[in-house]
Amino acid sequence: MAPYSLLVTRLQKALGVRQYHVASVLCQRAKVAMSHFEPNEYIRYDLLEKNIHIVRKRLNRPLTLSEKIVYGHLDDPANQEIERGKTYLRLRPDRVAMQDATAQMAMLQFISSGLPKVAVPSTIHCDHLIEAQLGGEKDLRRAKDINQEVYNFLATAGAKYGVGFWRPGSGIIHQIILENYAYPGVLLIGTDSHTPNGGGVGGICIGVGGADAVDVMAGIPWELKCPKVIGVKLTGSLSGWTSPKDVILKVAGILTVKGGTGAIVEYHGPGVDSISCTGMATICNMGAEIGATTSVFPYNHRMKKYLSKTGRADIASLADEFKDYLVPDPGCHYDQVIEINLNELKPHINGPFSPDLAHPVAEVGTVAEKEGWPLDIRVGLIGSCTNSSYEDMGRSAAVAKQALAHGLKCKSQFTITPGSEQIRATIERDGYAQILRDVGGIVLANACGPCIGQWDRKDIKKGEKNTIVTSYNRNFTGRNDANPETHAFVTSPEIVTALAIAGTLKFNPESDFLTGKDGKKFKLEAPDADELPQAEFDPGQDTYQHPPKDSSGQRVDVSPTSQRLQLLEPFDKWDGKDLEDLQILIKVKGKCTTDHISAAGPWLKFRGHLDNISNNLLIGAINIENGKANSVRNAITQEFGPVPDTARYYKKHGIRWVVIGDENYGEGSSREHAALEPRHLGGRAIITKSFARIHETNLKKQGLLPLTFADPADYNKIHPVDKLTIQGLKDFAPGKPLKCIIKHPNGTQETILLNHTFNETQIEWFRAGSALNRMKELQQ
């Protein structure tokens, strides 16, 4: 066998890997570090400028901001084929970010690659494994104890392979990225669907699965279908109770949960300047709920102010110099344009059960009465990666302070999640945290907590119908507390605070009165708060671990008996034949998010152990055959049982299977476990009416076939008792449909066509069994 160094060299040549990270080359006009934590990695605006000039000359037209940043990171701008919505781009992202739940599988895959170090600056953030139970400090101590094995693995893997490590208690990945790593013009990928948060500071920040992160960390050009660009023109200005959150709640109502699929949402227009930098981040963050590839705002003085306040005035000065490349060209073309007049925009609240079900706050009470939704609010929850900035906490505290002045506290339970240790320390210093406690709130740990289902909720029983209001981003069935009868609504932090004080959905703070302790009625005034602290931010505790310069002696241990971590075995290669007589594991009815496919909450502890977490495969999906979740017919025994058990039975008996899905299958989180699990348990294809972008890519990466009905009506031709044969794989080619033979139990057959979006590289992944297998083949 060839020496290891030679294998790496071969891999680099075969895949076009750069021998060093491009950002380490000094910027010709100025040497400005990408972050304080990586002083020798520099921002390359000069390279961005050069690539933009090459592409603009080729296309001969004005460019959107999204195009400037994306095309400015092309691996080969002179020869790359560029057509929105059609071609696949080969890109060179500047950096990678991973949260702890997805980092486990990403780092396990990177270890399997055999490479010695990451090729781009990368970080791990411990935010997903901390369960909200008693309050910040106690919950953090408990999490460190329970998750010690996982945290040790991530810390040592980070040290071994050159990845920065943010310890538990640091804060939520996206807030840490905004405070330290995102900058105008950056191309950043993150293993979390809300990575687009960084668009608030003018970067193209895209959520991906762990296998995509591994490609970038390995120095391989990253592939992305050339996105379309949706323009959202903002006019007027925000005022009163209307907040940045209302912009994206309104957009979600317009575009729905799949309206942004395959597109970058680019905000522009005079109204942009009325929104704070962290407010822009809120809007970009929740753009994930409309299926957008990402969202972005043009560089402006609000971003400059935020960069300066977070210790990055040098980056702001450099961005000023290159500003023409950080804003859209005049006369650029958008594939779709939405216009929102901020002067006319009213406070919104979206839900329940879907983040695109939009209502003005003034109307939601009436709608709830009509629909039979519980009016009493059991819990109000503020914070999360979407709304946990200093400004968010300040506006909420301004509402709470008014209630306290009239002798009132929250009628509902009330929780507060700071976005980072810096935010926590600063709101403690400036008194906001105490005001929120005084009104009845509990300050939770700097972590995701209830937003992702990490909530040990005690006030209700499972199955009890109730309402909660949050400033989070997602409100799918069972998302926050695993109770399918919890009606979750998303809105701004200040509206959550007002509703928690009133205790009912019927309350409209713009028009309704509260009764003070003295019996007098009063109306809450619209909150006002500083977007940034007047003093400097208080950084709080130091929670960052630098990777050592010399990691040659660093060990990364994974016990073979561990129930939390498991080294990966390669998936089997394609056998060169058509897929015959596939059994249908489940035909899914209606919405099927990644939460339905691979639930979070208590299952997060198994994110590093593929076999154990596969016991949650599709347990939330509704079986069209009986209308039940986690109950499917075993085609051999004819007995109904849990989905994972049935899949394991088929795998044990050598029966390959397929899943049939509905529209926008796999929307929501970026979790690649929703692709790894079906592959691990013997799945071969997922056939749907349409896919969410990240999930479709994740399925391809793991050697599965994500296919769509050429005629969506063909979904109705397939029944759970049928068998399917997929033909045409020997001649598998981009743009060429595959045939599907539906074999009914009565002996009759039907033939339908299945479309796919595979390119040549992705077809090689399928043939090799996975993208990781293909990477290893190229090392030989």
Automatic annotation (TrEMBL):
The gene is ACO2. Residues 551-561 have a biased composition (Polar residues). Catalyzes the isomerization of citrate to isocitrate via cis-aconitate. Its EC number is 4.2.1.3. This is Aconitate hydratase, mitochondrial. Its main location: mitochondrion. Residues 530-561 are annotated as: Disordered. It is found in: Mitochondrion. It holds the Pfam family Aconitase_C. Its cofactor is [4Fe-4S] cluster. Belongs to the aconitase/IPM isomerase family. Binds 1 [4Fe-4S] cluster per subunit. Residues 67-503 form the Aconitase/3-isopropylmalate dehydratase large subunit alpha/beta/alpha domain. NCBIfam families: aconitase_mito, PRK07229.1. Gene3D superfamilies: Aconitase, Domain 2 (3.40.1060.10), Aconitase, domain 3 (3.30.499.10), Aconitase, domain 4 (3.20.19.10). Pathway: Carbohydrate metabolism; tricarboxylic acid cycle; isocitrate from oxaloacetate: step 2/2. The keyword Methyltransferase does not apply. Residues 583-711 form the Aconitase A/isopropylmalate dehydratase small subunit swivel domain. Keywords: 4Fe-4S, Iron, Iron-sulfur, Lyase, Metal-binding, Mitochondrion, Transit peptide, Tricarboxylic acid cycle. It catalyses: citrate = D-threo-isocitrate. The lineage of its organism: Eukaryota, Metazoa, Chordata, Craniata, Vertebrata.
